[in-house]
């Protein structure tokens, strides 16, 4: 479900891109060092966006190192690690674990069972640090699973459930920034759920799986217009909430993601989805 919150690399300077990759590689390193190799398999750009926003807002002291990695051991890469990295890594682990648990309830696939049993050993550290977050994530995914089993096609109800989950993930502290951070997370979550459901519609239909857009299987232009409007509203609220934070750091990268990377990503998926049914 994750992987929809990306940069538009072509519109970033080399220095900005290197800085963005620094957060991403820092998260990868932190996951490996603290949660094991298995945790790196769930690394995604959506959680990197969380680090970008929270680091820009709270400005924690960062440790910047340069070293090689498994993908290119001979070329050193910048890795930025701070207290937000630790928080984001824990959220990454919790999201992956409870999503695997949810998958097992749905399909009980062997690969999910293997990954779940491996991840179960890594859950303890993240759970002990953030038990309330963990329980909230689990409860929202259980509610989402319930709605999906009921074959609920109220798209606001199902997407808002995942939005609420991501809203809680984006709230790092209960302070004056809580409302705007929750709005950012909520609308990121809603966007992710909508686009994932749209992109998977044909595959879900062929396999007889739940999809909240199933009634639009033969009305793709109508569906495209509806999803476009829903996502546009969410991204508008997201952008306003980011503006409210009055960020001074990472702002060019964050703007690139919100106004360019995310926009191009969802537009290409919407257009591709309709082309496949022409």
How would you describe what is shown here?
With 278 residues, this protein is mainly alpha-helical. It has one domain (9-275): Farnesyl Diphosphate Synthase, CATH 1.10.600. 70% of the residues lie in helices and 6% in strands. The chain has ten helices and two strands. The chain has helices at 14-35, 45-58, 83-106, 110-129, 131-149, 155-170, 178-199, 201-207, 220-245, 251-275; strands spanning 63-69, 72-81. It has a two-stranded antiparallel sheet with strand order 1-2. A hairpin with a 2-residue loop joins strand 1 (63-69) and strand 2 (72-81). Helix 1 packs across helix 2 (45-58) and helix 1 packs across helix 3 (83-106). The two termini are 26 Å apart. Mean pLDDT is 89; it is low at 274-278.
Detail the topology: elements first, then pairings:
Blueprint: H1 14-35, H2 45-58, E1 63-69, E2 72-81, H3 83-106, H4 110-129, H5 131-149, H6 155-170, H7 178-199, H8 201-207, H9 220-245, H10 251-275
Antiparallel strand pairs: 1-2
Helix pairs in contact: 1-2, 1-3, 2-3, 2-10, 3-4, 3-5, 4-5, 5-6, 6-7, 7-9, 9-10
């Amino acid at each position: 479900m994750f992987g929809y919150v990306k940069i538009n690399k072509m519109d970033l300077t080399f220095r900005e891109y290197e800085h963005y990759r620094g957060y991403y590689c820092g998260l990868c390193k932190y996951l490996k060092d603290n949660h094991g190799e298995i945790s790196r398999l769930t690394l995604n750009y959506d959680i990197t966006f969380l680090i970008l926003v929270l680091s820009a807002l709270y400005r924690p002291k960062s440790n910047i190192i340069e070293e090689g990695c498994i993908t290119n051991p001979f070329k050193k890469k910048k890795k930025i690690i701070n207290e937000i990295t630790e928080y984001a890594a824990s959220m990454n682990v919790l999201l992956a674990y409870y999503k695997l648990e949810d998958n097992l309830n749905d399909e009980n696939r062997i690969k999910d069972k293997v990954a779940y049993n491996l991840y179960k050993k890594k859950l303890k550290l993240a759970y002990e640090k953030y038990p309330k977050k963990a329980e909230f994530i689990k409860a929202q995914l259980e509610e989402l699973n319930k709605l999906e089993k009921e074959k609920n096609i109220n798209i606001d109800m199902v997407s808002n459930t995942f939005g609420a989950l991501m809203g809680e993930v984006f709230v790092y502290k209960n302070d004056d920034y809580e409302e705007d951070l929750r709005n950012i997370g909520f609308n990121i979550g809603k966007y992710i759920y909508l686009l994932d459901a749209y992109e998977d519609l044909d595959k879900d239909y062929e396999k007889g799986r739940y999809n909240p857009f199933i009634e639009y299987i033969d009305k793709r232009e109508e569906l495209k217009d509806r999803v476009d409007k829903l996502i546009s509203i969410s991204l508008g609220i997201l952008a306003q909430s980011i503006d409210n934070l009055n960020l001074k750091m990472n702002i060019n990268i964050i703007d690139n993601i919100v106004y360019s990377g995310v926009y191009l990503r969802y537009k290409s998926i919407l257009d591709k989805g309709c082309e496949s049914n022409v």
